[in-house]
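Bumping my old thread because nobody answered last time. Still need a sequence for this structure:
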């Protein structure tokens, strides 16, 4: 195994990514597995510092989870109210009511935090507070989908959705 250290430059980063791509197809010895884990950590650390990703908007998180669970908008009516209200929330035109956060997070099998608008990293300004979850983002860009956090939710081995698919969750 090559000696690796903190990735300091773009060329270090590219070399690490190239190495991972090469060894992913190799026989998985302990040495190869350890190198993959180390490089994955170093690449993630570099990405976090040099290519930060904004958090996903709550309506994007909900749409992603509906798709992952093969659910329809109508499945949210008992939690969010009318069909029109669900449509407005999913389009981003309406904000989530505070009282719906907990039931919605349980229904979707995600943390409540994923449904709360986050700091807008594009403009380095905090969202202006408009009351409970009534938030607007300043600047021209709304935070984009944060694929890493959504992937973590979708791939979490303890998530209700994955365990339900495997028959581990009782109804």
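Sorry it took so long. Here it is:
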């Amino acid at each position: 195994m090559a000696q690796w250290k903190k990735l300091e430059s773009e060329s270090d980063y590219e070399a690490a990514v190239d190495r991972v791509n090469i060894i992913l197809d190799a026989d998985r010895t302990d040495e190869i597995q350890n190198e993959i884990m180390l490089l994955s950590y170093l690449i993630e650390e570099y990405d976090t510092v040099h290519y930060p990703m904004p958090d996903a908007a709550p309506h994007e998180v909900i749409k992603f989870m509906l798709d992952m669970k093969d659910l329809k908008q109508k499945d949210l009516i008992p939690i969010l109210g009318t069909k029109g209200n669900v449509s407005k929330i999913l389009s981003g035109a309406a904000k989530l009511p505070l009282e719906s956060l907990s039931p919605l997070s349980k229904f979707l099998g995600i943390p409540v935090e994923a449904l709360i608008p986050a700091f807008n990293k594009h403009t380095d300004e905090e969202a202006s507070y408009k009351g409970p979850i009534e938030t607007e983002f300043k600047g021209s860009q709304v935070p984009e989908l944060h694929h890493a956090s959504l992937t973590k939710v979708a791939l979490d081995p303890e998530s209700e959705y994955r365990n339900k698919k495997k028959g581990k969750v009782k109804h």
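Confidence is low (pLDDT under 50) at residues 119-157. Let me know if any region looks off to you.
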